[in-house]
């Protein structure tokens, strides 16, 4: 072993190992990837903030701050005289200054007659350097690598043959004028040796441009304006366009760096001295030859370079572009301004000084040209370059101490290369990175990659040696600590994959040789070669694709291993002092190196400007782009790592010689190619990918080039013309699609409505999604250079929506004129003509706009209401639609808000009656624009709350086709004690109801990729409201699905007071309308005045809001593509004449009344609106006549509603004299007679209109108690239409109504109509006693009733707390059993229990009830006695269950009853009885009940234990009992399910939460680790049969799948297409990303009960919750004590305790099975 190595190991073992995160001074750079260039072949990596190798570090001459290297190019044979003439003044001036003439001549060829001049030059101090033999521009061209090789190496050999000369440097011909210096040249030509064994050490072909910022930072301001008209910035030397002066554009010049005038190393073998911009040719090209401005700029640049302590490297020529005296001017300026601070050197001198003064006499290349093991890097993060050198024999380093301006030379701890017997350097694949938090460098080298974790004891035999020597596997780790390198034994912990080692290299061949060898210039080894200490050493090592890189930008490098067998990422853990494998790695199929350890064409670069490295792979087999997921949202399919695939394609046989014709639009040229010269010349610069090689020289700018924005842009289809798009429709047979309007008349339409005059008002959301760019900003260079998806963000935006009206001036059915009425509205969503203007929805406001001067422009704009929440433009308020009741209805949009009235249409201000803000959280709304009235109403619609002809309101949201609002909130508000689960009826009631059938290419999903083929953008449910389509469409509702480019149709079927719906029989596997045009985006649908179905076509490629598009993807998209386009279509039946759109605005009142008689819903609505707006009483008689005589029931009904809007009913009543008579006043007879209309909808609307005082006065004021009134009301209770009975129940609860018998009759006669029962209960809240009496009256008349029917009425009684009502309820129970002999004991127990439970929940003591109920109390006492007997008897289980519900509820005997209930928990009892006993103990409350529940825990069955736990968790006081049982070991922690543990450990009460957390800490686990432990699931074969059993046991209580289970969480069928990683995360770490609708809440009631679950519905009166076991609970808001959100998913963590990896594989197999 070499002595240095002995010393180094001894030193390492003696040094105390400091932690990785040692304290340090503030680092120079926070970029943890600042050392990544060491593993790359990029010649253009330095930048302004890159660590610098300043001149004092290497020049070796005190006081010298900067170096100037004068390099003259293009010398060819026979030109000695020309060059001597040009150079002589310059050389003489240099000799005056320094006594020598340091100029380097870049020479192509020379002739024999040139040799004397060269000899003279060399004596004067010049050097002759290499410029190729043939001066090809570019060097790599014409498909011949050999030509480039030969001309370069031929030049090297030729200049080595020049007597007295030893060339060291090269300059690429035309490097200042074209993209010639290719990475392929440096990697495959420069770093090799010539056929004669010659090589170079330096290059000066990369240009360096100084920016104005660099000049300013280095104390030099850009020169002031001169007579030269060209601006002073150095960027002018790369002109974008040609002109009279400028001959060549350098707009796409890419082989330069900025602000880095320092030497640096390319590919470990080449010192690069970047050439300063401008060269004399660049100056000539920019502003003509010999321009004085050129010299001024050179002087300016030199001043900055001196202050920056850099190198100024000249390119000039004797071709007339600059004069010799101008070069002398520069020299004079250097001497005059900077004196001895500037040193003029040749390239040869510069390289010699670098080697001598920095590298301790070594060079980058050994004497035979091989790499010498040197690395130049900033070790200590001080901003200055250091170096390490490791060859096995000499491992040393140099650390620059800026404070002392001196080097220190500690030992370096590892060999970087070693040399085999052939004299070749064997790269040890040592990697540098930043693992420490202090920014200091670390290194890693291990040549046992891929071997078993425990290395085998092996030996190797060498034929020439008698005894074999052992193989040496070397592992080296080191961290710089600010002074020296320290090694750590545990730094390798965790670096293994499947029990195989992770290392940087694997030895691919061995040989038996001495440990220390030194190569000779002729190959092999020199005479000082030592043959002692022989051992088996590597001949070659295979790169195993291990790299340090900071992918997550946390300031520390991860460790990547990426080869053909291994793919993983590791992160260092300070806490565990170990590497931890991350849950993500490179995408499958991507590898850094191939099976031979060669570069596989994988590159890391930030393509989308988000600051994170993305992936590009391109080789001869495939090409791919993956973007880093900056935002991780697993529920949207956004996973950590490179989860955003842009493309990944296999390619056919490469045709590298014809780049332009063989590569497709999205194809990427290979970065590597087969053969010995793999680097294919790719690099990344200034937002572009460049490729330059022998096969690209014929292309523009001699490169294949593509901006990043184009690389990652979606390969979206081009937009179609309106005519082309029209051909893409597939519509139901018998219909056709016609174009109504298109761009430029209309753009980005989202809503429309016809005015009374026939004009079509259109809302254009041209500012979607993030606003329109501010004027001119998109053209600025700083914005234009950004990726398309980031330009708006950089430029800034403003609201730019518009309102237009369209006119058909020639009557051909197509609009041909557009007028912009109002613009710059932020994201408008809806419109409705009103009076002389329009109502506009544009969050946060509802606006009224009017044109008062007739110029077609709005000059009055008023805010009517404000406070609607903004945010996602797809989720803002929208509207509008006028209801039959003359209110204007709007949709919430899913955003909510607190809405305040600002002004009426006329401009009047709020009064005290409408000044209070109204919350619309979870609710839609209605309003009156003329009065300022505003109400929150039932339901929450996302886009488009619409009604049908009969007044039924419909809504939906994106993942749902349709629902019906069956219960208006205004009725619920009458009874605050009434709890209702939902006021909407879900439609589309059939299997697989979310399916849709697009005909377009499957849409690009930016999230939730499993949703393709399922409704994900349902909006604008539009009932068809005409007869043009025929009777088969009378109950059709059309729904937009813009993501899938289609219009869906549902057909309604009556279902009681609501509906079900289904697909049309012939549309089971197709849609009513679909398009193959991916840009077709139907947003709003509406039946037009002509009976056609009109469609607003937003016509955008990107429809999703950026909120749902990952930032990585946004950068790839033009989010506004199509903003200048838009169409409006209409669907009409074929062979039907077109109906003209009428002009109702010109009709008088009589004509308007007549216009009501139309099949067109639009015409009836518009006529009604105009009549109501005009308030012309002349319409009354005509409308009455329509009510009576119109043949169309829709007309009769709408005439009634118009009369309502005219305020006729109240005024008519007021005019009639009061009195008692059996005659209905003639003025109201039409309304009363409408109750007998032949159509139920007319009868229904008559009852609605009759609410309040109307029918009350009509039927009671004049005829109270009369046979007429009785006939009307009692007759309607028997109406065959459930909707009429439903509305009658609402009417009976109106002010002034006392129709308890009607309500009682409806209640008793309709026991199986729960919605009707809800209507009755809403009306019964005002006089509960009378309602009970009405029910009792019906019992006397007809029959007994069931407990289920009466329970909600008992709840109402208890809530009212009226003693007379309570007494009536007990009497009703007694009556129910006395008048009917068939009332069972079960029913009687249930009735009493139901009433007592209701009273108990309201805190009403049974003793107080008994004191006021006389005979009823006696009957109740008897019932309690009988219940005790029955519960403990051997009666039927049903009887016993019913009896148990009374135990413990009596005024006495509680102790006896508790004992009985405890007995009923014994294992000898049937399970049903045990469950009933648990439920009753849970109701009773009290510590004695809790004790009874848990007393015999060990004897409880699993099912009983689960029930007991549920009961104990229902009250905070009982949780204490449960935790105490766990603490004393009575209940094992493992017997508490994950869901129950989560409830306990997140409990709102801190004391309980802390105890639970402590108890269950041992069962919790790090989620990432758990998921990692389940990674093998992806490789296991699952059994769907076994998986079904596991689903039933563990999942079905919350999830539905294949028709089994419960719908609490998502249907698992919708996630079946998700990848295994996503599913594992969702199951094992459910809180990683949880939708708000699945967040758990805990509700505590005033009675002390707790319920934990998700909120499934809300009404004004109550919330509805579902627990994890499927239990549903409806809780009145008046009963709530508190409601607390946990912020966690209802699905618990800890499923790993129930599902082992094989179980998980089985479960996933079942989820994915067909």
Structural account:
There is one protein chain. With 1714 residues, the protein is α+β, with helices and mostly antiparallel strands. Helices cover 28% and strands 21% of the residues. Strand 31 and strand 32 form a beta hairpin. Helix 32 crosses helix 35 (1415-1431) and helix 41 packs parallel to helix 43 (1550-1560). The longest helix is centred in the N-terminal third of the chain and has 19 residues, at 80-98. Residues 1-27, 225-232, 457-470, 521-532 and 1261-1268 have low confidence and may be disordered.
Question: N-to-C terminal Cα separation, in Å?
Answer: 66 Å
Silhouette: globular
Q: Return residue spans where pLDDT drops below 50 for at least 5 consecutive residues.
A: 1-27, 225-232, 457-470, 521-532, 1261-1268
| Separate helix tally | 47
Number of strands: 76
Residues in β-strands, percent: 15-25%
Descriptors:
1714 residues, alpha+beta, six-stranded antiparallel β-sheet, 76 strands, globular
What is shown here, in short?
The protein has 1714 residues and is an alpha+beta fold. The protein contains 47 helices and 76 strands.
């Amino acid at each position: 072993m070499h002595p240095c190595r002995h010393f180094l190991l001894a030193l390492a073992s003696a040094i105390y190992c400091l932690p990785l995160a040692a304290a340090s001074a503030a680092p120079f750079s926070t970029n943890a990837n600042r050392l990544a260039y060491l593993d790359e072949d990029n010649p253009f990596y330095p930048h302004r903030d890159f660590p610098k190798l300043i001149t004092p570090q290497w020049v070796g001459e005190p006081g010298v701050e900067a170096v100037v290297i004068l390099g003259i190019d293009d010398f060819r044979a026979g030109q000695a005289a020309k060059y001597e003439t040009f150079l002589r003044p310059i050389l003489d001036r240099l000799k005056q200054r320094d006594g020598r003439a340091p100029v380097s001549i870049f020479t192509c060829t020379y002739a024999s007659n040139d040799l004397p001049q060269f000899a003279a030059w060399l004596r004067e101090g010049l050097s002759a350097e290499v410029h190729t033999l043939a001066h090809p521009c570019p060097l790599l061209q014409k498909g011949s690598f050999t030509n480039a090789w030969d001309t370069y190496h031929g030049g090297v050999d030729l200049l080595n043959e020049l007597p007295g000369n030893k060339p060291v440097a090269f300059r690429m011909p035309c490097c200042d004028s074209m993209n010639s210096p290719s990475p392929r040249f440096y990697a495959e030509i420069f770093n090799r040796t010539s056929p004669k064994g010659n090589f170079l050490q330096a290059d000066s072909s990369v240009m360096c441009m100084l920016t104005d910022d660099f000049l300013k930072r280095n104390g030099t301001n850009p020169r002031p304006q001169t007579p030269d008209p060209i601006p002073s910035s150095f960027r002018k030397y790369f002109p974008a366009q040609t002109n009279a002066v400028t001959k060549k554009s350098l707009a796409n010049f890419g082989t330069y760096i900025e602000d880095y005038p320092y030497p640096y190393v390319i590919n470990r073998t080449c010192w690069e001295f970047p050439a300063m911009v401008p060269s004399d040719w660049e100056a000539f090209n920019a502003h003509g030859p010999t321009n004085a401005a050129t010299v001024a700029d050179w002087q300016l640049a030199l001043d900055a370079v001196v202050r920056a302590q850099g190198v100024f490297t000249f390119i000039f020529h004797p071709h007339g572009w600059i004069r010799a005296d101008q070069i002398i001017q520069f020299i004079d300026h250097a001497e005059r301004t900077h004196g001895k601070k500037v040193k003029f050197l040749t390239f040869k001198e510069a390289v010699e000084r670098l080697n001598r003064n920095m590298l301790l006499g070594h060079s980058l290349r050994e004497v035979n040209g091989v790499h010498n093991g040197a690395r130049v890097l900033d070790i200590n993060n001080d901003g200055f370059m250091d170096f390490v050198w490791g060859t096995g024999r000499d491992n040393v380093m140099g650390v620059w101490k800026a404070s002392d301006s001196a080097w220190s030379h500690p030992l370096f701890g590892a060999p970087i290369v070693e040399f085999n017997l052939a004299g070749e350097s064997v790269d040890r694949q040592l990697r540098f990175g930043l693992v420490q938090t202090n920014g200091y460098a670390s290194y890693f080298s291990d040549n046992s990659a891929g071997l078993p974790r425990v290395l085998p004891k092996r030996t190797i035999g060498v034929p020439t040696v008698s005894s074999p020597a052992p193989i040496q596997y070397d592992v080296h780790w080191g961290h710089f600590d600010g002074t020296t390198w320290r090694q750590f034994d545990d730094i390798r912990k965790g670096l293994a994959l499947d029990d195989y080692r992770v290392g940087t290299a694997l030895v691919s061949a061995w040989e038996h040789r001495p440990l220390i060898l030194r190569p000779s210039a002729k190959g092999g080894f020199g005479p000082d070669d030592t043959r002692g200490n022989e051992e088996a050493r590597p001949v070659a090592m295979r790169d195993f694709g291990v790299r340090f890189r900071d992918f997550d930008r946390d300031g520390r490098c991860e460790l990547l291993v990426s080869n053909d067998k291994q793919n993983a990422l590791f992160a260092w853990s300070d806490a565990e002092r170990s590497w931890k494998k991350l849950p993500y790695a490179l995408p499958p199929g991507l590898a850094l190196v191939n099976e031979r350890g060669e570069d596989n064409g994988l590159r890391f670069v930030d393509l989308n400007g988000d600051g994170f490295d993305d992936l590009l792979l391109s080789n001869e087999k495939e090409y791919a782009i993956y973007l880093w997921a900056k935002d991780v949202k697993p529920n949207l399919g956004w996973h950590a790592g490179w989860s955003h695939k842009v493309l990944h394609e296999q390619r056919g046989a490469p045709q590298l010689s014809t780049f332009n014709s063989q590569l497709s639009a999205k194809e990427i040229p290979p970065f590597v190619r087969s053969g010995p010269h793999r680097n294919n010349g790719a690099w990344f610069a200034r937002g572009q990918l460049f490729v330059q090689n022998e096969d690209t020289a014929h292309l523009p700018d001699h490169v294949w080039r593509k901006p990043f924005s184009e690389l990652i842009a979606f390969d979206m289809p081009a937009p179609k013309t309106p005519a082309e798009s029209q051909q893409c429709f597939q519509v139901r047979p018998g219909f056709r699609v016609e174009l109504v309007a298109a761009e430029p008349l209309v753009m980005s339409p989202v809503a429309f409505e016809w005015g009374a005059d026939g004009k079509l008002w259109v809302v254009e959301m041209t500012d979607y999604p993030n606003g329109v760019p501010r004027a001119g900003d998109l053209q600025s260079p700083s914005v234009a250079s950004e990726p398309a998806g980031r330009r708006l963000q950089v430029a800034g935006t403003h609201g730019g929506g518009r309102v237009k009206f369209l006119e058909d001036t020639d009557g051909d059915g197509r609009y041909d004129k557009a007028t912009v009425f109002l613009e710059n509205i932020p994201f408008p969503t809806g419109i409705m003509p009103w009076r002389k203007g329009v109502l506009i929805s544009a969050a946060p406001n509802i606006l009224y706009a009017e044109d008062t001067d007739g110029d077609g422009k709005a000059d009055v704009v008023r805010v009517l209401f404000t406070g609607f929440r903004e945010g996602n433009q797809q989720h803002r308020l929208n509207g509008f639609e006028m209801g039959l009741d003359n209110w204007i209805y709007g949709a919430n949009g899913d955003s909510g808000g607190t809405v305040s009235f600002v002004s009426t249409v006329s401009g009047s201000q709020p009064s005290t009656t409408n000044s209070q803000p109204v919350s619309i959280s979870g609710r839609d709304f209605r309003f009156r624009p003329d009065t300022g009235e505003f109400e929150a109403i039932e339901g929450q619609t996302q886009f488009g709350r619409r009604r049908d002809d009969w007044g039924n309101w419909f809504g939906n949201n994106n993942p749902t086709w349709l629902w019906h609002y069956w219960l208006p909130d205004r009725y619920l508000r009458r009874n605050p004690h009434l709890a209702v689960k939902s006021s909407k009826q879900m439609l589309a009631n059939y299997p697989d109801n979310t399916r849709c059938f697009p005909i377009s290419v499957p849409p690009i999903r930016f999230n939730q990729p499993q949703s393709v083929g399922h409704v994900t953008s349902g909006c604008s449910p539009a009932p068809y409201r005409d007869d043009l389509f025929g009777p088969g469409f009378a109950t059709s509702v059309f729904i937009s699905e813009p993501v899938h480019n289609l219009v869906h149709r549902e057909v309604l079927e009556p279902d009681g007071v609501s509906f079900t719906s289904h697909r049309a029989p012939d549309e089971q596997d197709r849609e009513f309308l679909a398009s193959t045009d991916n840009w077709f985006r139907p947003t709003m649908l509406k039946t037009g005045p002509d009976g056609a179905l009109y469609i607003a076509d937003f016509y955008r490629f990107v429809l999703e809001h950026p909120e749902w598009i990952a930032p990585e993807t946004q950068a790839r998209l033009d989010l506004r593509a199509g903003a200048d386009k838009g169409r409006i279509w209409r669907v009409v039946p074929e062979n039907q004449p077109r109906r003209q759109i009428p002009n109702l605005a010109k009709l008088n009142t009589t004509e308007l009344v007549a216009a009501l008689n139309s099949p067109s819903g639009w015409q009836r609505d518009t006529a009604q609106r105009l009549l109501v707006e005009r308030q012309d009483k002349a319409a009354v008689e005509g409308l009455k006549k329509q009510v009576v005589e119109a043949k169309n029931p829709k007309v009769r009904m709408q005439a009634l509603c118009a009369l309502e809007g005219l305020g006729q009913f109240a005024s008519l009543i007021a005019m009639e004299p009061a009195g008692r008579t059996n005659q209905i006043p003639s003025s109201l007879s039409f309304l009363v007679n409408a109750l007998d209309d032949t159509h139920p909808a007319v009868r229904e609307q008559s009852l609605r209109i009759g609410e309040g005082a109307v029918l009350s006065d009509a039927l009671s004021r004049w005829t109270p108690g009369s046979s007429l009134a009785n006939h009307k009301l009692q007759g309607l209770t028997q109406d065959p239409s459930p909707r009429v009975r439903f509305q009658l129940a609402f009417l009976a609860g109106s002010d002034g109504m006392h129709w308890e018998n009607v309500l009682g009759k409806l209640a008793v006669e309709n026991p199986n109509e729960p919605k009707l029962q809800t209507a009755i209960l809403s009306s019964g809240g005002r006089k509960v006693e009378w309602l009970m009496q009405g029910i009792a009256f019906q019992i006397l008349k007809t029959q007994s009733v069931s407990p289920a029917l009466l329970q909600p009425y008992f709840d109402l009684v208890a809530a009212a707390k009226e003693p007379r009502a309570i007494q009536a309820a007990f009497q009703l129970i007694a009556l129910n059993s006395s008048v009917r002999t068939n009332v069972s004991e079960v029913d009687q127990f249930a009735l009493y229990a139901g009433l007592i439970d209701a009273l108990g929940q309201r805190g009403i003591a049974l003793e107080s009830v008994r004191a006021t109920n006389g005979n009823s109390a006696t009957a109740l006492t008897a019932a309690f006695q009988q219940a005790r007997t029955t519960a403990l008897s051997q009666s039927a289980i049903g009887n016993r269950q019913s009896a148990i519900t009374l135990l413990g509820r009596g005024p006495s005997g509680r102790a006896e009853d508790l004992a009985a209930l405890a007995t009923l928990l014994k294992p000898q009892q049937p399970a049903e009885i045990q469950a009933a006993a648990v439920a009753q103990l849970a109701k009773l409350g009290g510590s004695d009940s809790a004790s009874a529940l848990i007393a015999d825990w060990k004897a409880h069955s699993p099912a009983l234990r689960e029930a007991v736990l549920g009961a104990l968790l229902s009250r905070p006081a009982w949780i204490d009992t449960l935790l105490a049982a766990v603490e004393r070991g009575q209940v094992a922690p493992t017997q508490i399910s994950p869901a129950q543990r989560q409830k306990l450990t997140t409990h709102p009460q801190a004391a309980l939460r802390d105890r639970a957390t402590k108890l269950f800490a041992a069962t919790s686990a790090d989620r990432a680790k758990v998921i990692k432990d389940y990674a093998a699931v992806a490789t296991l074969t699952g059994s769907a049969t076994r998986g079904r059993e596991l689903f039933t046991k563990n999942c079905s209580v919350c999830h539905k799948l294949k028709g089994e289970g419960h719908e609490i969480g998502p249907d698992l069928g919708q996630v079946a297409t998700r990848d295994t990683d996503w599913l594992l995360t969702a199951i094992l770490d459910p809180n990683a990303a949880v939708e708000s609708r699945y967040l758990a809440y805990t509700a505590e009631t005033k009675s002390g009960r707790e319920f934990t679950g998700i909120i499934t519905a809300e009404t004004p009166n109550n919330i509805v919750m579902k627990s994890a076991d499927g239990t549903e609970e409806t809780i009145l808001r008046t009963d709530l004590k508190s409601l607390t959100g946990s912020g966690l998913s209802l699905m618990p963590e800890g499923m790993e305790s129930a599902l082992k990896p094989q179980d998980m594989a089985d479960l996933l197999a079942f989820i994915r099975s067909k």
